[in-house]
Amino acid sequence: MTAVQKVAIAGAGVAGLATAIFLAKAGVEVDLYDAQPALSTRGSGITLQGNALRVFDELGVWDEVSAAGNAFEGLNLRAPGPGAPVVAALPDLKTGGPDYPSTMGMSRPDLARILLGAAERHGARVHFGTRVTGISQTDDTVAVEVDGEPAGTFDLLVGADGLHSAVRELIGIHVSPEQTGMGIWRTFVSLPPDVDRSELYYGGPMYIAGYTPTGDDTMYAFLVEAAQDRSHVSAEEARRIMVEQSRAYDGPWNHIRADIEAGADANYTWFTRHLVEAPWNRGRAVVIGDAAHSCPPTIAQGAAQGLEDAAVLSELLTERDAVDQALWDSFHERRVARAKAIVDASVQLGQWQLDGVRDADMGGLMFGVAQLTAARA
């Protein structure tokens, strides 16, 4: 007996699709609504650490994810300037346990495609081009309105609809992402022959320059700068800016620049942070993933934390027989402090750079996060 028989989910991102898979596998009737007209086929890359890979195995998609991504161990730190010498080769903790690589890079569209396919195979109904616009609750149910029309009555509504969550606002949680002071240029390029793991460059004109292999022949590269308004920059100008700002970085960046000059897209976003304090639910509606917490990608834990939200919530919903206060207390005990630790650490890494702190213990902070995430949520 599960605590729910019929669930609505808002948002077809990582957290929403993972929740749909977990619940549908358990026999729960799932309707997922996403405002986008279709699954996106565009996007850059994503870095996934072992605790995320462990959840993919629990979802039953690890073989597909492994085949589509690029798994590796360790992290290189390079210096800016001629030759871009490797100044440190750091080992990674296997936060997912010994059965999984420490880190994997992959294309975001590939990951979305895999998760959507699994959700639909297990019977979840996914409705693109639809937005949750209203809810009303009783003690035992939540009636959901989609695009201004009644969509049905459910045992639970899961708001996994991202940074600017409509569900979060509808249930009266007035928390919004805040800028942290940094912005990031991203591009998706071909894989240079001498790159086999993530590499980061600290120093030079950018706060961080880096890249992660995402497949046998693809790579995600990025530059982190002080946040600026880039909203009116054309595609051609974006490529020019990213090329010029990366000229201080040698080695594989020469290959990256050539791909950008040949037409690879350059996209820009700001780093943000927010955290919904407990409780994340209001009655029979709850927010998870980026709707509940967001952080800069300085520790590469954003997607992993959304996956953990989905895993813990789904476990409680499928192993208990009632959506009661004990269920919510258990959920918040297992998720809120852990998510807060990740948000705080991710922001701290960036703040040290913004403040020019030269003796910051970045390695110690990242090792502490790895130890935290190695323990199951």
Automatic annotation (TrEMBL):
<keyword id="KW-0503">Monooxygenase</keyword>
<dbReference type="GO" id="GO:0004497">
    <property type="term" value="F:monooxygenase activity"/>
</dbReference>
<dbReference type="Pfam" id="PF01494">
    <property type="entry name" value="FAD_binding_3"/>
</dbReference>
<dbReference type="InterPro" id="IPR036188">
    <property type="entry name" value="FAD/NAD-bd_sf"/>
</dbReference>
<protein>
    <submittedName>
        <fullName>FAD-dependent monooxygenase</fullName>
    </submittedName>
</protein>
<dbReference type="InterPro" id="IPR002938">
    <property type="entry name" value="FAD-bd"/>
</dbReference>
<keyword id="KW-0560">Oxidoreductase</keyword>
<dbReference type="InterPro" id="IPR050493">
    <property type="entry name" value="FAD-dep_Monooxygenase_BioMet"/>
</dbReference>
<feature type="domain" description="FAD-binding">
    <location>
        <begin position="6"/>
        <end position="346"/>
    </location>
</feature>
